[in-house]
Fold this sequence. Notes:
The complex is a heterotrimer of chains A (99), B (500) and C (495). Chain A is of the alpha+beta class. Chain A contains 3 helices and 3 strands, in the order H-H-E-H-E-E. Chain A has a domain at 6-43: Orthogonal Bundle (Histone, subunit A), CATH 1.10.20. In chain A, 34% of the residues lie in helices and 9% in strands. A two-stranded antiparallel sheet of chain A has the order 2-3. Chain A starts with 5 loop residues before the first helix and ends in a 7-residue tail after the last strand. Chain C is of the alpha+beta class and 495 residues long. Helices cover 39% and strands 18% of the residues of chain C. In chain C, the strands form 3 sheets. A 9-stranded mixed sheet of chain C has the order 3-6-7-10-1-11-12-13-14. Chain C is elongated. Classes of the chains: A alpha+beta (99), B alpha/beta (500), C alpha+beta (495). Strand 3 (88-92) of chain A pairs antiparallel with strand 9 of chain C.
Amino acid sequence: MSTISREEVAHLARLARLEVTDDELDAFAGQLDVILESMKTLGEVDTEGVQPTSHAVPLVNVFREDQPRPSLPRDAVLAGGPDTVEDRFRVPRILDEEE
Amino acid sequence: MGDRTIDQTAAHMAEAIRTGRATSYEITEAHLDRIDAVDGTIKAFLHVDREGALATAREVDEAIARGEELGPLAGVPIAIKDVVVTKGLPTTAASKILEGWIPPYDATIVERIKAARMPILGKTNMDEFAMGSSTEYSAYQRTANPWDTGRIPGGSGGGSAAAVAAKMAPLAIGTDTGGSIRQPGAVTGTFGGKPTYGSNSRFGLIAFSSSLDTPGPVSRNALDAALLHEVISGHDPRDSTAIDAPVPPVAEAARLGATGDLSGVKLGVVKEFAEGSGAAEPGVVEAYQAGVEQLVKLGAQIVEVSCPSFVYALPTYYLIAPSEASSNLARYDGVRYGLRTGDDGKRSLEEVMSLTREAGFGPEVKRRIILGTYALSAGYVDAFYGKAQKVRTLIKRDFEAAFERADALISPTTPFTAFKFGERTGDPYQMYLADLYTIPSNLYGGPGVSVPVGLSEGMPVGLQVMGPVMGDDITYRVAAALESAQETLLADTAPEIEGK
Amino acid sequence: MTKLNTYDAAVAAFEPVLGLETHVELDTATKMFCGCATTFGAEPNTQVCPVCLALPGALPVANKAAVEATMKIGLALNCRIAEWTRFARKNYFYPDMPKNFQTSQYEEPLCEDGYVDVVVEGKPYRVEIERVHLEEDTGKTLHVGGATGRIHGATESLVDYNRAGIPLVEIVTRPVPGTGALAPEVARAYVTELRDIVRSLGVSDVRMEQGSMRCDVNVSLNRPGDEWGTRTETKNVNSLRSVERAVRYEVRRQSALLEAGDKILQETRHFHETTGETSPGRSKEEATDYRYFPEPDLAVMEPSREWVEELRSSLPEPPRARRERLQAAWGLGDKEMQSVVNADAVALIEATIAAGASASGAVKWWLGELSRRANESGAELGELAITPIQVAELQGMVEDGRLNDKLARQVIDGVLAGEGGPADVAAARGLEVVSDTGALEAAVDEAIAANPAVAEKIRGGKHAAAGALIGAVMKATKGQADAGTVRQIILDKLS
């Protein structure tokens, strides 16, 4: 019994914006299954009352003063863009709803 | 040690430049010539900046002629892993998705390398986005192990390790998320150091797993690595996770270790590493044990420590790292920089983004993005990502308890030596096992170094020294002591490479 | 065609439950996680750096001033400030969001559990605040090729990242039941009050028309005694009036559906300023899964209690208390004070009084003539090119008898036209009440001579007839005479 189906992998790929091929779907489903089996061993660890570690070395209240620093020159900003128009980044038509 | 310029240690080169016995220009040029001669075979570099490196070298020589006081590694050339952002030099993280991208800024560690007046030779190959243990996942080329060009140089930093092993560079920068500095060091007979997480800046280091990524030095011995460690380390206000504390005195520790005296030093051996499926292959165990005996002869005391949660380190890592990666790699969408494919004027942005990411990322990156997306998705986040963070706490506690009893922990760096190309690419899980012994330090945040300890069937074996958080100095001391017990540096015994 | 109930029928049959999510853009000098400037209206993509453009390798560092401003807002809304709080990543792809995740807060917001009290038609309502959290704004997208500026039908879009990364505070209410037919007014009153509170703190210019304050309005309906219904979320309602209209429209639309036995879809809707209607967003094939997780690139925050108390003690007088104090000081009735508040004139009147004007005079000018001018030009009262000091000067001239109301209005014309202060305009345009009695007496004599019949009536004791003569004198002096003085001269001469 596999833990992750082909359909589930397809759903995840859509969430992650990856246009995966059918061959990849098959391969990933099988490989992820093996990996997830290993991960399930974590389920056997007793972590009752254990605080999660999100940072290797815990630091608190790391702030920056509200002092402006130079931005990049616009040429440098736009230089990397695959398609720029009128000093902006051009993208194809957007299907999704705006947030 | 041979008597060619490129056979010297970085410390010797620096000394020669400072005292006028050699120029930075000739040393830099010797390495560029070496790259020309052997990189056709090794393929460690993705980009070589001959002119830039020589220009810096010339400036250093002029400065020295003017009598300026320069830093301890001034004029010594260095190679940089392609995951570190370099202004004006192509930076791709060995991914097609960043092909042709020229960064408009420098990583903090690159700024520091430039301030230290070190000529930058070029950018080294790696597994795409630092995901892998063999450098076979580079989108551009396959890097060979200088000890056997039919074998992998380790990964993800196989390019940096191979460049240093093949003497194309005396020093290199690597990054270590689960072992990507130490494991390539072990399998190429070089030295690799992962500093304490946060003791140097990640600003400008292309993120794989933010809570684990650590840049560090690659060299052929402990002192050279320690000198580079001191150049790149220290607080950076641009990295919120950087520790605002003095850098541990690692160069001093390496010099102390080189005296060969480890009396009073307690070294912990992790019981769980030797058990069950975690055990290393026999040849590795043999070389490692010989190293342990040498350490004992130098006066170290061996204590067995138990770290029961270490057996969960691998699955913990493979939940945390891909989760963070899935989010960190979302920015590669073909809008602001990098590759865009499929924009035929008809397709929607969503389709173009998906086609771009599909074409731009290789299989291992996609696998991990999907895995991370799964581990963070609604309904699973507590069972996977959340659970892994709790187990991470347990692993941390194991380390803290072990450091109550020992000054440092030792283990083989990796369970097996360099394997043949293609041997593990078909089975990701087998590949992941290469990092079995290195991952715990990343989860904990403490330092770890890999120092060459011997050979197994002609291939190098590394011994890992793990220290407590901000206790980087002890790891260098132990490693340097082990080197002092060896007749020659292992890197100097590598077979000569046939140029192509 | 969307079926609508009349509003009265809708609220007779159903009880609305409101919910409001408001985004406030802070006016810090720099962005939330980098040192880029935040100047409004800069050339596209000139206020971006590796961090806010999400270049590979860049890392965020939190702006302390933004964290403080958020805590101030929380404190002013009677919230508890978290002792332990952190940022989280909200993962979704959108081209105006450079990282394709938004750095926001999830389970541990900076501020929680507050409230705002409002009064509508004399009735008090308490709107409970669930949370106040800190996040970052997105870039701005220009949609090209479709109907003007709309995403629908556009063939491509152009993105400017200047706004990306500007600190944004999200203020979320708990559901607000029990407002009945006054739901639209309560919603508006809440947003107004929130705006005034934030403005009083000086942490945002809270201008809805510029997008520095944006509102999402949630509405559901239920029959009395039933459980709350399914809610809709109407996005980007960008004026106080629109808040009211959006609620009203949703009440009418949802009640018609419910009465027809249809279900309300839990969906995002868009408000249309021109028609006052809402329309559904494009429904997604799959439910959104934001995959929140703690931001590993930022440190957790533990605001010390000393820090919180220091901020609390720095808070200005709450707008509501201030209004009550000023209302009493100015001697205004409730209705009049409401007009002052609605016209956004509290601070202007206060400043005018501080500059020496009487309360009644200050109120008269700002609510009367100046409000009319603002309406005519479609501007906010505060945007008029006249300062409170100038209004005080004007009122002083009236009280000294140097100007009458008619002349004063002409002086305002000049000030608004940029001709200088009231005294300058009066001098330049020759707008002074004629106080030269000799000149006035001559004018009165002329008027009497020209209107003998009227003069006779006045002599006969019909003082009311003086009006006709006053008018003639005013006409002759081009309005520059004081009517009272003229009247006195006429009566003196004809009695």
